[in-house]
Amino acid sequence: MSIEIKRSIKPVEYNKAMDLLEKRLEKVINRRGRELIWFLEHKHIYTAGTSYKRTEVLDKTIKLIKSSRGGKITCHSPGQLICYMVIDLNQRSKDIRKFIISLENSIIDTLKEFNISGNSDRKNIGIWINHQNEDKKIAAIGIRVRKWVAYHGFSININNNLNYFKKIIPCGLKNKKIIKLKEISNIKYSDFIKHLEKNLIKNLSVSNYS
Length: 210
Known about the structure:
The protein is of the alpha/beta class. Helices cover 23% and strands 29% of the residues. β7 and β8 form a beta hairpin. The chain starts with a strand and ends in a 7-residue tail after the last helix.
Protein backbone atom coordinates (compact mmCIF):
# COMPACT_ATOMS: atom_id res chain seq x y z
CA MET A 1 0.00 0.00 0.00
CA SER A 2 1.47 3.37 -1.04
CA ILE A 3 2.13 6.23 1.37
CA GLU A 4 -0.57 8.90 1.38
CA ILE A 5 0.75 12.41 0.71
CA LYS A 6 -1.23 15.20 2.37
CA ARG A 7 -0.69 18.96 1.99
CA SER A 8 -2.47 21.62 4.03
CA ILE A 9 -2.55 25.12 2.56
CA LYS A 10 -3.67 27.03 5.67
CA PRO A 11 -1.95 26.72 9.08
CA VAL A 12 -3.31 23.78 11.08
CA GLU A 13 -4.14 24.12 14.78
CA TYR A 14 -1.66 21.99 16.73
CA ASN A 15 -4.11 19.91 18.76
CA LYS A 16 -6.17 19.13 15.66
CA ALA A 17 -3.01 17.97 13.88
CA MET A 18 -2.09 15.73 16.82
CA ASP A 19 -5.59 14.27 16.89
CA LEU A 20 -5.39 13.40 13.19
CA LEU A 21 -1.90 11.95 13.65
CA GLU A 22 -2.95 9.77 16.60
CA LYS A 23 -6.00 8.45 14.73
CA ARG A 24 -3.89 7.58 11.69
CA LEU A 25 -1.32 5.94 13.97
CA GLU A 26 -3.96 3.60 15.40
CA LYS A 27 -5.18 2.72 11.91
CA VAL A 28 -1.67 1.88 10.71
CA ILE A 29 -0.92 -0.15 13.85
CA ASN A 30 -4.10 -2.14 13.26
CA ARG A 31 -3.48 -2.36 9.49
CA ARG A 32 -6.65 -0.44 8.69
CA GLY A 33 -5.06 2.63 7.12
CA ARG A 34 -2.28 3.89 4.84
CA GLU A 35 1.01 5.35 5.99
CA LEU A 36 1.13 9.13 5.86
CA ILE A 37 3.44 12.02 4.94
CA TRP A 38 1.80 15.36 5.75
CA PHE A 39 3.19 18.82 4.85
CA LEU A 40 1.77 21.74 6.84
CA GLU A 41 2.40 24.82 8.96
CA HIS A 42 1.34 25.81 12.47
CA LYS A 43 0.53 29.22 13.87
CA HIS A 44 3.03 30.56 16.42
CA ILE A 45 3.37 27.97 19.24
CA TYR A 46 6.01 26.39 21.47
CA THR A 47 6.05 22.62 21.93
CA ALA A 48 8.03 20.55 24.41
CA GLY A 49 9.18 16.99 23.76
CA THR A 50 9.47 14.27 26.37
CA SER A 51 13.02 15.19 27.45
CA TYR A 52 12.64 18.96 27.87
CA LYS A 53 13.64 20.85 31.03
CA ARG A 54 11.93 23.92 32.50
CA THR A 55 15.30 25.70 32.56
CA GLU A 56 15.19 25.69 28.75
CA VAL A 57 12.29 28.16 28.86
CA LEU A 58 13.88 31.62 29.00
CA ASP A 59 10.64 33.63 28.83
CA LYS A 60 8.37 32.21 31.53
CA THR A 61 5.32 33.96 30.03
CA ILE A 62 5.15 31.78 26.94
CA LYS A 63 2.51 29.07 26.63
CA LEU A 64 4.12 25.66 26.30
CA ILE A 65 2.32 22.69 24.75
CA LYS A 66 3.64 19.33 25.90
CA SER A 67 4.08 16.84 23.08
CA SER A 68 4.48 13.06 23.00
CA ARG A 69 7.37 13.35 20.53
CA GLY A 70 10.96 12.85 21.53
CA GLY A 71 13.32 15.78 21.98
CA LYS A 72 13.30 19.15 23.72
CA ILE A 73 11.59 22.53 23.15
CA THR A 74 11.05 24.05 19.74
CA CYS A 75 9.02 26.81 18.14
CA HIS A 76 6.61 26.56 15.21
CA SER A 77 5.33 29.55 13.25
CA PRO A 78 4.18 30.47 9.72
CA GLY A 79 6.96 30.13 7.15
CA GLN A 80 8.30 26.99 8.81
CA LEU A 81 7.64 23.77 6.91
CA ILE A 82 6.46 20.91 9.10
CA CYS A 83 6.43 17.33 7.91
CA TYR A 84 4.43 14.92 10.07
CA MET A 85 4.33 11.25 9.21
CA VAL A 86 3.11 7.84 10.23
CA ILE A 87 5.52 5.19 8.94
CA ASP A 88 5.37 1.46 9.66
CA LEU A 89 8.80 0.22 10.72
CA ASN A 90 7.48 -3.33 10.81
CA GLN A 91 7.91 -3.17 7.04
CA ARG A 92 11.37 -1.62 7.40
CA SER A 93 13.31 -4.14 9.49
CA LYS A 94 12.26 -2.39 12.74
CA ASP A 95 15.33 -0.19 12.24
CA ILE A 96 14.78 3.11 14.06
CA ARG A 97 18.32 4.36 13.45
CA LYS A 98 18.04 3.80 9.70
CA PHE A 99 14.66 5.50 9.71
CA ILE A 100 16.15 8.64 11.31
CA ILE A 101 18.98 8.54 8.76
CA SER A 102 16.38 8.28 5.98
CA LEU A 103 14.78 11.51 7.22
CA GLU A 104 18.13 13.25 7.56
CA ASN A 105 19.19 12.17 4.07
CA SER A 106 15.89 13.34 2.59
CA ILE A 107 16.46 16.85 3.93
CA ILE A 108 20.16 16.87 3.00
CA ASP A 109 19.41 15.57 -0.52
CA THR A 110 16.77 18.27 -1.00
CA LEU A 111 19.10 21.04 0.15
CA LYS A 112 21.78 19.71 -2.20
CA GLU A 113 19.40 20.02 -5.15
CA PHE A 114 19.30 23.75 -4.38
CA ASN A 115 23.11 23.91 -4.08
CA ILE A 116 23.05 24.08 -0.28
CA SER A 117 25.30 21.79 1.76
CA GLY A 118 23.62 20.39 4.87
CA ASN A 119 24.91 17.84 7.34
CA SER A 120 23.70 15.74 10.26
CA ASP A 121 25.25 15.54 13.71
CA ARG A 122 25.02 12.38 15.82
CA LYS A 123 25.36 14.38 19.06
CA ASN A 124 22.92 17.14 18.10
CA ILE A 125 20.13 15.58 16.06
CA GLY A 126 18.82 17.67 13.20
CA ILE A 127 20.26 19.21 10.05
CA TRP A 128 22.94 21.88 10.12
CA ILE A 129 24.32 24.35 7.59
CA ASN A 130 27.71 26.03 7.79
CA HIS A 131 26.98 29.71 7.26
CA GLN A 132 29.59 32.43 7.70
CA ASN A 133 31.99 29.87 9.22
CA GLU A 134 29.48 28.80 11.85
CA ASP A 135 27.23 25.71 12.05
CA LYS A 136 23.58 26.77 12.30
CA LYS A 137 20.53 24.56 12.67
CA ILE A 138 17.98 24.59 9.86
CA ALA A 139 15.89 21.51 10.64
CA ALA A 140 14.75 19.79 13.83
CA ILE A 141 13.65 16.15 14.09
CA GLY A 142 11.39 14.67 16.78
CA ILE A 143 10.09 11.11 16.52
CA ARG A 144 8.14 8.70 18.69
CA VAL A 145 7.62 4.99 18.01
CA ARG A 146 4.65 2.91 19.14
CA LYS A 147 4.43 -0.79 18.30
CA TRP A 148 7.10 -0.21 15.65
CA VAL A 149 5.14 2.54 13.92
CA ALA A 150 7.00 5.88 13.84
CA TYR A 151 5.13 9.18 14.00
CA HIS A 152 5.61 12.94 14.46
CA GLY A 153 8.40 14.14 12.12
CA PHE A 154 10.53 17.21 11.47
CA SER A 155 10.45 20.96 10.79
CA ILE A 156 12.51 23.07 8.40
CA ASN A 157 12.99 26.82 8.75
CA ILE A 158 12.23 28.41 5.39
CA ASN A 159 10.95 31.95 6.01
CA ASN A 160 9.70 31.96 9.60
CA ASN A 161 10.41 34.59 12.26
CA LEU A 162 13.53 33.35 14.09
CA ASN A 163 13.16 35.93 16.88
CA TYR A 164 10.63 33.62 18.53
CA PHE A 165 13.46 31.18 19.26
CA LYS A 166 15.09 33.75 21.58
CA LYS A 167 12.51 32.94 24.24
CA ILE A 168 13.72 29.35 24.59
CA ILE A 169 16.85 27.24 24.34
CA PRO A 170 15.94 25.53 21.06
CA CYS A 171 16.30 21.75 21.24
CA GLY A 172 18.16 22.24 24.52
CA LEU A 173 21.29 23.46 22.71
CA LYS A 174 22.98 26.45 24.30
CA ASN A 175 25.12 28.79 22.20
CA LYS A 176 23.88 27.28 18.93
CA LYS A 177 22.32 29.46 16.25
CA ILE A 178 19.24 28.89 14.10
CA ILE A 179 19.03 29.74 10.41
CA LYS A 180 16.32 29.81 7.75
CA LEU A 181 16.63 29.13 4.03
CA LYS A 182 15.63 32.66 3.03
CA GLU A 183 18.85 33.95 4.62
CA ILE A 184 20.95 32.06 2.09
CA SER A 185 18.74 31.33 -0.93
CA ASN A 186 15.58 32.57 -2.61
CA ILE A 187 13.96 29.13 -2.74
CA LYS A 188 10.26 28.93 -3.48
CA TYR A 189 8.35 27.18 -0.70
CA SER A 190 6.36 25.06 -3.17
CA ASP A 191 9.49 23.99 -5.07
CA PHE A 192 11.19 22.87 -1.89
CA ILE A 193 8.20 20.74 -0.85
CA LYS A 194 8.10 19.11 -4.29
CA HIS A 195 11.73 18.03 -4.08
CA LEU A 196 11.44 17.01 -0.43
CA GLU A 197 8.40 14.81 -1.15
CA LYS A 198 10.30 13.02 -3.91
CA ASN A 199 13.30 12.36 -1.66
CA LEU A 200 11.19 11.15 1.26
CA ILE A 201 9.36 8.64 -0.93
CA LYS A 202 12.70 7.43 -2.31
CA ASN A 203 14.49 7.13 1.03
CA LEU A 204 11.53 5.61 2.89
CA SER A 205 10.97 2.95 0.25
CA VAL A 206 10.60 -0.48 1.87
CA SER A 207 13.14 -1.86 -0.63
CA ASN A 208 15.86 0.29 0.98
CA TYR A 209 15.43 -1.60 4.26
CA SER A 210 15.67 -5.16 2.96
